[in-house]
Amino acid sequence: MSDPHNFNLQSAARQCMLEHGFQPDFPKSVQDEIHALQTNPRKVNAVPDVRDLRESLWSSIDNDTSRDLDQIEVAKEMDNGTVRIQIAIADVDVYVPAGSAIDKHAAEQTATIYTGVHNFSMLPEELSTGLTSLLEGQERLSVVYEFSVDADGCVSAHDIYRATVANRAQLAYAAVGAWLQTKKNAPPKVSASAELQKQLLLQNRVAQQLKKERYRRGALNLETIETHPLVVGNQLVDIETQHRSLASDLIEDFMIAANEVVAKSLEQAHFSSIRRVVKTPKRWDRIVELAAQYGTKLPGVPDSKALQDFLCERRTTDPEHFPDLSLAVIKLLGSGEYVLERDGESAQGHFGLAVQDYTHSTAPNRRYADLVTQRLLKAMLAKQKAPYSDDALAAIAQQCTKQENAARKVEREMGKRIAAVVMRNRIGQTFAAIVTGVNEHGSFVRTKNPHVEGMLVRGQKGVDVGDKINVTLVRTDPEHGYIDFARS
After folding, report:
1. Which phi and psi angles does 457 have, rounded to 5°?
2. What percent of the chain has pLDDT over 70?
3. What torsion, rounded to 10 degrees, do the Cα atoms 54, 55, 58, 64 define?
4. What digits encode the pLDDT tens for the residues 423-455?
5. Which of 72, 206, 74, 80 is nearest to 149 (CA)?
6. Do 27 and 151 sit in the same domain of this protein?
7. Predicted TM-score of the model (pTM)
8. Are residues 146 and 261 in the same domain?
9. Contact 351, 79 (CB under 8 A)
């Protein structure tokens, strides 16, 4: 994909990947293994101790264009008033054995990288969007996480097992979210099935209960602005804001609960594991100062519940600036990391989610840590020895953290280049904006429509964070991702 001024974003994405230590192409050894799989497909139907759950009303909700589907869900109300949730996770390990060329490549990359103009998949697409994707109408092997949720949103009676499943309805966030919100204009697959409608409404109800209980424990209700490029006829024409919806919240709430179940199950089985944590924030003192600017006194020691109460108050009082406050808090909390938790050690917990037991296990097509966790679970179910030593898990965790930080840089740099390309034809136009940063490097603004970040190169004297101003676009530089504004 290139722009009218011949700046090639596809080439820029590949170069950016290389500069940050990623391999944008699969080596020949991986391609050879894929060819062998296609020539002699593995017989996976004869796997022992696998339940047949193909007739359940499984459905998936993901982005409109997603083909690498990792999970599907189904819910059932029980006689005791609880709701049984089953989440089936694609069995990727069955096609990607540990030590294979595909596995070694995935272990180096550790994740699928989303650059806005091209997705660099961790696994070859023949797998991630084919054999190991839970696509509609396809029978697939899976690992199922089952748990019960009561009316207060508390999780109990969990179980994990292998099963054959079939996705009965592949749905998209935007359409399902709008229907859940308004109960109008149901997506065709939903409107055609009263049973599916009932199923999704039940899932949404349970997700809200899970979220409410998590907030009660002090989970942080943060909101940041996410954007994605709008492409028409292979040309970038605009930048659209991605809005959260009840459907995206539903999946997020289910996945958090599922990851807690997995972490607890491995702990109970005395398996060491990889945990995903955001440790107690080191910049809590600055968070306290930030809250004080709004008239709120936070405790001197980190307290997620007190922080959550402050955030809820600011969301209600000043929703327009809440994404900027959220972004500041996120930066002060620090980024998450993968760590080894040895058998018998106490869990570090996840500060932002207010959960003590948390691992990544729900996206083995897209994250290597999740594939490793899947192998641990399958060994646990088979009553076998853990397939990884503690030292091996520690090394994997370190690599995943390192590559995640690098991926964040790739995605951020490409986001700036995409914005610079989109805005090139709008030089001289005036936009409403909010000042988002003032430091020794300069003053920075974010325009409201589209949401684009840039530097205020003229008229910055006297502006401060939160000020609403009008700015005129004066320059863009796609190669470096620069966007410059002047105060109007």
Report:
1. -95, -15
2. 94
3. 80
4. 998 999 999 988 888 888 889 998 988 889 999
5. 206
6. yes
7. 0.90
8. yes
9. no
